[in-house]
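Archive record:
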Amino acid sequence: MKFGLLTSICEGMTFEEVVNFAAENQLECLEVACWPQGGAQRRYAGVSHIDVANLDEKKAAEIKQLCQEKGVEISSLAYYPNTLEPDEKKRNSYISHLYKLMDASVLLGVNMITTFIGRDSKKNVDENMELVKEVWTPIVRYAEEKGVRIAIENCPMLFTNDEWPGGQNIMSTPANWRRVFEILDSPNLGINYDPSHFVWQQIDYIKPIYEFKDKIFHVHYKDIKVFWDKLADVGVMATPLEYMSPKIPGLGDVDWGKYVSALTDIGFEGCSVIEIEDKSFEKDIEDAKRAIRLSARYLRNFIE
């Protein structure tokens, strides 16, 4: 499998600077953050290292040449909105950008995007599944026509009061994966697998790797530390950040040896990327770079 980085932590760096940093640190691939221009709307979102809305063949050729010269591959174009947002104006703007992401991925020869399926947090699971069918059937059909694979991350997007209680991404559990894959039965729809989100949900993060081996298109390395004393105090109905915290790989509760072992068991040969969301490394961009280097050094105990 190829080893790299999700670029959203590199806010303030140009795409060329990120590629150079990756090459200097022997990172082989980049999941490139591609939010619309205009700044962050939430933590770790809003970063744009490729402006997909204005990408043309000339600019795409320049990006491909840079990546080839530095030996760094683009694994995916990343944009993580709530495409089932109840406000239709917002929803349509998110979906519109998702189409631009797919078009850009074709221009760049990447043919992969990473995103969320979304969720209306005020509707139940059954109602959301109906919404998935309505909203995502044309999106998946377009992906099939363009030859683009869509990898959905399993983050519930349930961290703050405004996301509670339902969260903003219905594809957060194996049970929901099965339902979505039945509704959207397509070889172009799969998973961007992140074990950390299963840890705090108290879901086995190893077993689903085997069941969904043919649907795992892309994987993340992010860790989570559960504070069990806090969980015992506030309970599972609390907003999750009251009892857990994202950490760099090796400083949380994920058993990375078991995780990588399972990926090798299924013969995963795609791209695997470090995702940094650790508040202990947020002082400045140099702190973020240090988090990346520390994560890469640790994970190389398990991957080559």
The two ends are 8 Å apart (CA to CA). Residues 125-146 form the longest helix (22 residues). The CA atoms of residues 1 and 104 lie 24 Å apart. The chain has ten helices and ten strands.
